[in-house]
Input
Amino acid sequence: MLSFGKLLRSTRQARDLSISAVASRMSPPVSMQAISSYEHGERTCSLLRFYELCEALDASPTEFLSAMPYRKDVPNAVELDLRAVVHDRQPRLTPLRRWAAVHLSESRSRKVTIWLSPPAIQLIAELCGMDVRTFVAHVQQLIR
Output
């Protein structure tokens, strides 16, 4: 399964950036050890740090979220109806709503229901300023 750390590392490598280069592009700069610890899953990433990392990598948050795995067979995966998310108006879900709208418009498939893995759930919940339990409860209400 693709974790946030592995995704961070693969994005950095795809852009041919060293850990040192990413660390120095951060504002304020962070240590190479900090970047390495995010990549190895040894340190959690705050919402602010997530956005700073995206900026340092010239990647959008949507790009990161789009690369997270969406498989029903992943333990503790949560079903997400993208159309229901787009139509929901809860202010805290604005980051998810924007991502869902982009995902639907860019998707070549007609698939409107996806499955979020636990790492994706945690990241999206943080982006929405919610704890995981509250986020999952709200998302599950959308599919009823």
Observations:
- DSSP finds nine helices and two strands in the chain.
- The beta strands are 78-81, 113-116.
